[in-house]
């Protein structure tokens, strides 16, 4: 239980940092004081740092979708799914509320670009459709989960694994940040949404990202089975 408590604190802090810096940078994009590259670097680096700092405590997942994908892949004990997701969403919401305190502007929720108030992620319906946004978030999370599984969770990349994870997030923001905000993370969407009251298109992110992550987790198990490797190696952390 003590180890679980430490893991939950790590997931809370790691997710808080992601939404605070990533959502904050996205909010600066909305106000015209930063560009998409700034948001890409902020989100990618925040996740990489969380993985570096908290990897040995909780895995540094900081993402409910990745939590589900890790469980499907056999890398996370099922008993940790709900506590991890609760800690991650709580960290996202608290970070969103603090961003709301910091940014003194009207949270009208009328902006329909990739980022709304406080960095809330939205589907930019001027450039894509809801279906297009769904596919982008699902595929982006699929590749993020695949990167996590084949680097950090397979001990293949060592200390470089967090960097690889951060980079897949950064290139996702560079590609389709202007279309969906490139959330790839329910907590990244929920935190600013709760703080700003902007829930437009939230269902896209809550469905697409877990589907992408669980699909990657299932594929990982299939590939390992094809190689004659153990199907599951549930982490104890």
From TrEMBL:
It comes from the Bacteria. It is a multi-pass membrane protein. GO terms for molecular function: channel activity. Pfam families: MIP. InterPro entries: Aquaporin-like, Aquaporin_transptr, MIP. Signal peptide: none annotated. GO terms for cellular component: membrane. Keywords: Membrane, Transmembrane, Transmembrane helix, Transport. It is found in: Membrane. The chain crosses the membrane at residues 7-29, 41-74, 81-103, 123-145, 157-182, 202-223. Its main location: membrane. Belongs to the MIP/aquaporin (TC 1.A.8) family. This is Aquaporin. It comes from Acidihalobacter aeolianus.
